[in-house]
Design brief:
437 residues; alpha/beta; 2 domains; 5-stranded parallel β-sheet; 43% helix; disordered N terminus
Length: 437
């Protein structure tokens, strides 16, 4: 059933990030176009022979937060702390783990070319507001801020169908999202300097693609490669086939006026060169140290696996069998007294070891498992990219099955039982559940 293609096992060490003020999960467009229009620099740079793309890295910020707490714990008693005795600073402590992450990505990288890439590039949307955290792990990281005009972003957010088919954004919250994210990125630019964070407009990537990419690669101290132009080939024809946005945004508000003013300035005023600002860096570091990791009311930290286990206990029937998009992580299929298995899996029920080759393979495998008696499909937060990459799979799920549970930072669950069999089980999207984060 499965080929041995591994389209998302392309990892490499070093650090280049594209951060964006646009939405993190575009939908409603052809899959390739949706990815390109959201992170154009990312997909272009990942074609460079010395760069390779990395996905699913929201865990890096969580790792930095965990390390913050661990360092505090390890150095709490200065008279007996081994780290204090060795003069291991907080920054050195985090950097050591960052180097280990690099080695992990290097050791598990794969690419068809004979010469392995030297660096990796990532486009996780949430990283735009967590640059201080990433620099704790990777002090030499560089960032490319791709900026889009606020009206385009707001329309995309308002028209974005979330997992329950409706957008979580209204006009006001869409403009507020852009404004908040962009201000955070600009604050990071002013703090860390133009040698650390480059700004490029989405419009320039479309209108003057080669020159814009040359500037990006020069910023990264990499030679130009014509392969970086490949994702833009035929973009106009793809864009013409994209559906028109369903609504025009007309409501005026102070937030929208402020966002549009800032958007206009960013698109008109050239960015100057400037160095780092130690005082701003100190403020960002202090903010992350204070708010690096959310806690529940009793002071403990719930991991993703613990949150998923709590969701399963609270919202899944006791006799339910659930298949989990697990990436082989056995901890994700340990749902307490609820039975669960990997997705995808082989005939013995063991993780298959690779992702489906395309959306149709994913559909075929899911339906085969449903016939074997699985009742629910659980997609953890780090695997939400499946719904973007496997477009046919996403459409199949929403067309045939209803959502049993959704919480953005935890998981999405589809009820695979026939609607009449679901009966009175009143499962629905729970935006505010009893699971604490």
């Amino acid at each position: 059933m499965y080929s041995h293609r591994r389209p998302w096992k392309h990892l490499r060490g070093a650090r280049v990030y594209e951060v964006s003020d646009g939405p993190g999960q575009p939908s409603g467009l052809r899959r390739g176009y949706a990815f390109l229009r959201q992170q154009p620099a990312f997909w272009a740079l990942s074609q460079h022979p010395d760069l390779i793309h990395v996905l699913e890295t929201d865990w890096l910020v969580k790792l930095a937060g965990d390390l913050e707490l661990l360092y505090e714990t390890a150095t709490n008693r200065t008279d007996s702390s081994h780290l204090v005795a060795m003069s291991v600073t907080r920054s050195r402590f985090c950097e050591i783990f960052g180097n280990a992450v690099n080695e992990l990505l290097l050791a598990n990288s794969w690419r068809s070319s004979s010469a392995p890439p030297r660096r990796w590039v990532n486009c996780t949307a949430a990283h735009g507001t967590n640059i201080a955290a990433l620099l704790r792990l990777f002090p030499q990281a560089k960032f490319i801020h791709t900026i889009r005009d606020v009206d385009s972003v707001a329309k995309c957010l308002v028209d974005w169908p979330g997992p329950d088919g409706t957008s979580p954004y209204n006009e006001e919250s869409a403009y507020d999202y852009w404004l908040t994210t962009t201000k955070a990125l600009l604050e990071a630019e002013m703090a860390f300097g133009s040698d650390r964070i480059m700004r490029v407009s989405f419009a320039s990537l479309l209108k003057d693609t080669e020159n814009a990419l040359r500037c990006c690669l020069s910023f990264l101290h990499e030679p130009f490669s014509s392969g970086c132009l490949r994702p833009f080939t035929g973009l106009d024809s793809i864009g013409a086939e994209a559906p028109q946005r369903s609504m025009e945004i007309r409501t005026r508000s102070q937030t929208r006026d402020e966002a549009e003013l800032l958007s206009g300035l960013l698109n008109q005023v050239p960015r100057s060169s400037f160095g780092p600002d130690p005082e701003r860096i100190e403020r960002l570091d202090a903010a992350f140290s204070e708010n690096g990791r959310p806690r529940v009311s009793d002071g403990t930290i719930l991991s993703l696996t613990e949150r998923i286990k709590e969701v399963a206990r609270s919202f899944l029937p006791a006799d339910a069998r659930t298949v989990v998009v697990s990436k082989g992580d056995d901890a994700l299929v340990r749902l307490g007294d609820r039975k669960a298995g990997h997705f995808p899996q082989n005939e013995d029920g063991v993780y298959a070891g690779f992702h489906p080759g395309d959306g149709y393979e994913a559909i075929s495998h899911l339906e085969a498992l449903r016939k074997k008696g699985y009742d629910f499909l659980l997609i953890p937060n780090p695997q939400f990219w499946w719904l973007q990459f496997y477009g046919e799979f996403n459409e199949h799920l929403h067309a045939r099955y209803r959502i049993a549970f959704y919480q953005e930072d935890t998981c999405l669950i589809f009820d695979l039982r026939d609607q009449q069999e679901a009966g009175g089980t009143n499962l629905k999207v729970m935006c505010e559940s009893k699971v604490q984060v």
